[in-house]
Structure formats: structure tokens, C-alpha cells
TrEMBL record:
It holds the Pfam family GGDEF. It comes from Halomonas litopenaei. The keyword Thylakoid does not apply. CDD domains: GGDEF, PDC1_HK_sensor. It catalyses: 2 GTP = 3',3'-c-di-GMP + 2 diphosphate. This is diguanylate cyclase. Keywords: Membrane, Transmembrane, Transmembrane helix.
Length: 684
């Protein structure tokens, strides 16, 4: 991670240490004294404890304590991965109930679920841990990990998150926790950034597409969370509607029973006596336990007489209705705005003679809380795991409490179960409104976890994983491509170098065998070739010397001398053709070797050469034509003695010079008297 120890890198390291230390101190302070509200939540305590371990590991890492850092962080990594798996795995696979069992002694009265950090915090802690454990490879993967963490935290803490109806189970709870994680993140980022220089281009290549994938993952995650919340809302609404139906049907049953009584009373000419009233109303009282009062209110001379003459109070009598229905109303339902838990509903039905004359009213008072209790005895979604509250204008009428830890997620359903007929309503048959009752359902964390889809969490995890893979692939691909390019470049250089060396070697070997001025084989080459021809006897040699060459040098200069040397060499080569090998023997001397050439043949060749030079447009400073003298020698008996043969040719040449130059002289072996000479020597 720390590539070099330049002053800049040292500064980065110090800053990284400072930030990590700050995170460590803040985590300890939050756990102990700083924020009791934060520390009181078990999930926050877990996050802070885990962050503390990460901070210790990171601190060791910034101090180059790689071993101790790994020792601290590997077990933590395993723990975090298990927690993440628990968050993402379906409840059927890994039931939290079952998982909580071994830890019950530790976590009671809360459950393991209460202690599990929210998803966002788990993900950030895992990414931080992996970032440190990657160590020397961290410059490959850490930038994207940091980017992902940052986006996650931002999404979780910005106002944007509050627009999204996501379940609180999955999100960070406190700003202090976020601050600790942010400091750790900053500390690690500063520690890594100094090593970015060598791979900056590759980082850029990998970072953009994979960050885009991270953003898309986050967007998809939020979308799926909205979907999951929508499903939960739907479940809640369905529960509310079922209760609404039960309440409405209960109320309608009562109203119909009351209407039967009304019809019966309208048949009687006089209000019933007290005994008769008791007898008549007994079924109602027995059947509807929430019936508080039931009265027969007489009307005398067009005025309502109140209190009623015929009253059947419940054992605990309720207050009188504050409002009295108008005489012409067919049926009136009134909500009596008493303190919410004792709130009543009054139903009033007129009692008329067949001619239409109003005799009085049948007035019933119902206790709403008793009615609700009767219709909702057992919570439908598992006893103790759902809190249900029935409210009227935000005032509690009835509450069914839960046993577990309440999740911060609710669904509210307006209950349009009890039609409300206002007393001032002239059109008696029209329902103007419903009693504004509201039902609020709140599951405990266990139930919420069971009900809520795991899809958003799984999508988030997989999306981040794929982003990381994409990033690493692009990064490595770019790294490899640039390394490949560098390799190809150095290969090209190497190939060029090899070619140059080969050419130089060829030149060198050519120079070793040839005369640089004339381009003809040199003495070494001539000798080597003659050795290879040693079996091709008889073998003849011709030694050629330019006559008075010194004069050319002296009178026309060395450059002209060189030019003449080259011209004679070229001319001799053209004249000789394939009849033998011509080479420069030294100075202004040339040597011709003719394999399988008798002296006569060699003599003819020599003569051809002499004539060619003589006739060429080559001249001395005074216009005298340039001539050459040639000495010829031949050996027909093995073994070949080249030195001796050349010496013999030299003797013949010497003779040619002394006999006036521009001539061919043959060497005749005077010792053994043998001569291959068939033809007389040529002269000018
Ligand atoms: N320009 C030039 N001169 C050379 C080269 N090699 C030898 N010479 C000259 O060739 C001359 C040879 O002269 P000599 O051996 O005295 O003979 P010569 O003048 O040719 O006279 P003869 O051989 O007696 O006809 C010398 O002056 C050398 O300096 C060369 O490569 N280039």
C-alpha cells in the first residue's frame, strides 16, 4: 500500500492515522458517554463495536502492522459476511428465531435481530474491512469500494432518503454512527490515494463504468425497496379493510336490531311501561355487550321531553347525549366527542304513529372501545407481533399492544365503517360522512423481517459485487493492455537491434574477407578459397601488378591512385568472368586463382587481362596508357603448396617487370625441368 517513503507519502500516512484515530475515539465516546440515545439502541451498539474493531485494524494497518491488522480483521470479516448472509437469505432458509436461540442468554430481553446493524452499515463495514485486507492489492479495488460506501452513506443520510418510504430496518439510525464510518472511510482513502500514481489511467478506465453500475444498483435497490414497502402497505391495507368490514357489519347488525324495535314500538299506541321496556330490550342488551344506554324519549306537544321517561341504563351509566336529534329525522347517528377511550356513538330513531304523528325517539348509546374490543379480539398476524391502534382524530380509543421491539414502520388505514348522520341534516336518508376512525398497524422487527422481501438487499449486494468485478476486469484489462503495448514496443526495439547487429556482423565478416577499396576478395579470402580448391589440380595463379603505379600517386594524387585501383579491379573482374577468382593481393597487386586450369589456359587468361587494361581508357598523367605486368605459375601435383605457387608467380612477375613491363611471364620450374608450357610467353 505504502509504495515509497517520500515526504508526500509520509504526510498522507499521518493524515490517514489521524482520521482513523478520530474515528476510534468517536466510536468509544459514543458507546460510553457521548450519545446515550445512540448507545441505547442495540443495533447502534453493535455497529459502533464493529466500527471500533475496524478502526483498530485500520490503525495497525496505517502503522504498517499488517499481521496484527489481519489478525483483528479476518474474524471480523467472517462475522460481517455471516450477518450480511442473514440479512439477504430468505427467512425459510435461516430463520431468525432459530438463529437467535443460542444467543438468547446474551441478548434477552431483545432479540438477535434487534442487535443486527442495518444493511447499509453492514455493507459499509464489510467494504472497509475488505479494503484493508486487500492490502497491497488495495490500489486495484479500493477506489470503487470507497465510491460505493460514499454513495450508500449519502443516499442514507441526505434528504433524498426521507422521500423514499424505505424500511428503517435497512438504513442507518444515527448521524454519529455515520460520522464514525465516514472518518474510517476518509482515513482509508487517504492511505490509498498516495499509491494511485502508477495506475492512474487504469483507475480512470475502470472507475467510470463501474461507478455508473453502482449508481444504477443503488437506484434499482431504492426502486425495489419502494416496491417491497408497497407490498407491505398493501398487506396492511388489506388487514385494515377486513377490520373495517367487521366493524361495519357489527354496527349494521345493531342498527337493524334497533330498527326492528322501532317498528314494533310504532305498532303500540302508548310508550311501553318500564317492565315491558325491560322485557323488550333484553335481547339487545344480551346480544350487544357494547350497548351503553337505550332510551325511549317521549315527545309531548311537539317538544322533546328530556330526560326520557323510559330509560334502561347499563350498570355503569354513560353521560347523556349532548345533542338531541331533530324530530323529523328518520335515523341519526351522532359521535359524542367524549375523551377518546370512552367515546360513544348515539343512534336515534323516531317513533311515529301510522298517521305520521311523532310519539318519541329510540335513543341508543354505544361504547366504541367496547365495540372495537369485541370485533378484534385476536391480532390476525401472530399474537404479540403486531401493534394495532384505533384512533379518533389522533386520540387513542383502543390499542392492542405488541410484545417485541416495535419497528419504525407503520401503515395507517382510515376506517369508513360507521356512517355519521349529522343532526342538522335535513335529508335524513343521506349519509353525509363516516366517523373519522383510523387504524394504525405497526409490526415488531421480527414480523417486519419475516414479511419484508429480501430482494432489495440481495440486489444491492449482487449489484455491488458485479460493479467490483467489472471494475477489476476493466482495470486489469487496461493494465495488461498497457503492459502488452510496452512489451510490444521493447520487442520491436529488440528486433531492430538484432537486425542492426546482424547487418554489422555481415559487414564485419565481409570486411574480414574483402578489400574495402576495390570490393574484391582479400589475401585471406584468396588463401582460404585456394585451400578449398586444393583437390582441383592443376591449379594456376596469376599475379598482376600495375606498372609505374607510384607515378600516378605522385603526379595525380592518392585519390586518383585509388580510383585507378578500383577501375583496374572492376575491369579485371569483368574480363575474368567465371574463369577464376580475382582478389587484391596487396598494394597495387592482384591475384587470380584458376582451379583446374593448366598453365596454357592461365597464360591465355593473363593475356586477356593485360589487353583489357591496355585498351581501357586509363592513362598516366602524361597520357601514356596504363599497363599491367603479370606472372603466371601452375601446380599440377598434389599436395598444393599455395605459398610456393604464389612465389613462383611472383618470380615470373619479376621477370616481366625486368623485361620491360606490360607483359605476361610464365614460371618454368628449372630444377626438375618440367614445364606445362605449351605456348610461348605473350609480350606487348
Ligand atoms: N593510391 C594508393 N596507392 C597505393 C596503395 N597501395 C600501395 N600504393 C602505392 O603503390 C606504389 C607502389 O609502387 P612501387 O612498388 O614502387 O612500384 P611501381 O611504382 O608500381 O613501379 P613498378 O611496380 O616497378 O612498375 C607505392 O607508392 C604505394 O604507396 C593504395 O591502396 N592506394
Amino acid at each position: 500500500m505504502w509504495y515509497t517513503s517520500t515526504p508526500v507519502v509520509r504526510h498522507y500516512r499521518l493524515l490517514s492515522q489521524g482520521l482513523t484515530l478520530l474515528a476510534l475515539v468517536l466510536a468509544v465516546a459514543s458507546l460510553t458517554v457521548l450519545d446515550t440515545r445512540v448507545a441505547s439502541l442495540p443495533a447502534n451498539q453493535t455497529t459502533l463495536a464493529l466500527a471500533l474493531i475496524v478502526a483498530i485494524g485500520q490503525w495497525r494497518w496505517t502503522r504498517k502492522g499488517v499481521f496484527t491488522s489481519a489478525l483483528v480483521l479476518w474474524p471480523l470479516c467472517l462475522c460481517l459476511v455471516t450477518l450480511l448472509f442473514g440479512t439477504c437469505a430468505p427467512e425459510d432458509w435461516l430463520s431468525l428465531e432459530r438463529l437467535s436461540e443460542p444467543f438468547r442468554w446474551l441478548t434477552t430481553p431483545s432479540t438477535l435481530l434487534d442487535w443486527r446493524p442495518p444493511l447499509v452499515e453492514l455493507v459499509v463495514l464489510t467494504l472497509l474491512t475488505l479494503g484493508i485486507l486487500a492490502r497491497t492489492r488495495s490500489s486495484l479495488g479500493v477506489p470503487l469500494l470507497h465510491m460505493s460506501c460514499l454513495l450508500l452513506l449519502l443516499l442514507d443520510q441526505t434528504p433524498l432518503h426521507h422521500w423514499l418510504p424505505s424500511a428503517a430496518l435497512l438504513h442507518a439510525h444515527s448521524l454519529t454512527v455515520t460520522a464514525v464510518l465516514g472518518l474510517l472511510l476518509a482515513g482509508q482513502w487517504v492511505g490509498v490515494v498516495s499509491g494511485w500514481r502508477p495506475t492512474r489511467d487504469s483507475l480512470r478506465r475502470g472507475l467510470w463504468p463501474s461507478t455508473l453500475l453502482v449508481v444504477m444498483t443503488l437506484a434499482l435497490w431504492q426502486y425495489l425497496e419502494i416496491q417491497a414497502d408497497g407490498e407491505l402497505q398493501y398487506l396492511g391495507q388489506r388487514e385494515g379493510r377486513a377490520m373495517e368490514e367487521r366493524l361495519a357489519s357489527e354496527f349494521n347488525d345493531f342498527r337493524h336490531s334497533l330498527q326492528h324495535l322501532q317498528v314494533f314500538l310504532e305498532q303500540s299506541p302508548l310508550p311501553p311501561s318500564t317492565e315491558r321496556w325491560q322485557h323488550l330490550t333484553r335481547p339487545l342488551r344480551d346480544h350487544f355487550p357494547y350497548l351503553a344506554t337505550l332510551r325511549y324519549v317521549e315527545v309531548t306537544g311537539g317538544n322533546v321531553r328530556s330526560p326520557a321517561t323510559t330509560v334502561v341504563p347499563r350498570p355503569t351509566d354513560m353521560p347523556q347525549p349532548a345533542a338531541v336529534p331533530p324530530p323529523e329525522a328518520q335515523i341519526t347517528t351522532l359521535a359524542i366527542d367524549a375523551p377518546a377511550p370512552t367515546m360513544k356513538i348515539t343512534l336515534s330513531l323516531p317513533i311515529r304513529r301510522p298517521g305520521g304523528k311523532l310519539l318519541g325517539h329510540l335513543a341508543a348509546t354505544l361504547s366504541l372501545s367496547a365495540m372495537a374490543e369485541n370485533m378484534y379480539t385476536h391480532p390476525p398476524s401472530g399474537a404479540g407481533s403486531l401493534q394495532v391502534r384505533l384512533t379518533y382524530h389522533n386520540r387513542l380509543i383502543k390499542e392492542w399492544p405488541m410484545e417485541g421491539h416495535p419497528a419504525s414502520w407503520t401503515v395507517s388505514v382510515p376506517l369508513d365503517a360507521i356512517p355519521l348522520h349529522r343532526p342538522d341534516n335535513k335529508a335524513a336518508t343521506v349519509d353525509t360522512a363516516y366517523l373519522p376512525l383510523e387504524l394504525t398497524l405497526r409490526p415488531d422487527t421480527r414480523l417486519l423481517t419475516r414479511l419484508r422481501s429480501r430482494l432489495p438487499a440481495v440486489t444491492l449486494m449482487l449489484g455491488l459485487l458485479f460493479s467490483q468485478f467489472l471494475y477489476l476486469t476493466l482495470f486489469s484489462q487496461h493494465q495488461m493492455a498497457s503492459q502488452h503495448r510496452a512489451l510490444a514496443r521493447s520487442n520491436g526495439d529488440l528486433r531492430r537491434e538484432v537486425r542492426t547487429r546482424h547487418r554489422l556482423q555481415q559487414q564485419l565478416s565481409w570486411l574480414a574477407d574483402h578489400d574495402e577499396l576495390t570490393g574484391l576478395p582479400n589475401r585471406r579470402h584468396l588463401q582460404a578459397t585456394a585451400q578449398t580448391w586444393r583437390a582441383r589440380l592443376p591449379l594456376s595463379v596469376i599475379l598482376v601488378d600495375i606498372d609505374h603505379f607510384k607515378r600516378i600517386n605522385d603526379c595525380l594524387g592518392h585519390a586518383e591512385g585509388d580510383r585507378v585501383l578500383k577501375a583496374v579491379g572492376r575491369l579485371a573482374q569483368e574480363t575474368l568472368g567465371d574463369d577464376g577468382l580475382l582478389g587484391r593481393y596487396g598494394g597495387e597487386e592482384f591475384l587470380v586463382i584458376i582451379p583446374e586450369g593448366r598453365l596454357a589456359e592461365a597464360s591465355a587468361v593473363a593475356e586477356r587481362l593485360r589487353r583489357a587494361v591496355r585498351q581501357a581508357p586509363l592513362a598516366h598523367h602524361d597520357g601514356t596508357p596504363l599497363t599491367i605486368s603479370l606472372g603466371v605459375a601452375c601446380q599440377d601435383q598434389a599436395p598444393l603448396d599455395l605459398a610456393r605457387l604464389i612465389q613462383q608467380a611472383d618470380q615470373a612477375l619479376y621477370t616481366a617487370k625486368h623485361q620491360g613491363r606490360d607483359r605476361v611471364e610464365l614460371f618454368v620450374d628449372t630444377v626438375d625441368g618440367a614445364s606445362d608450357l605449351d605456348t610461348p610467353p605473350f609480350t606487348a
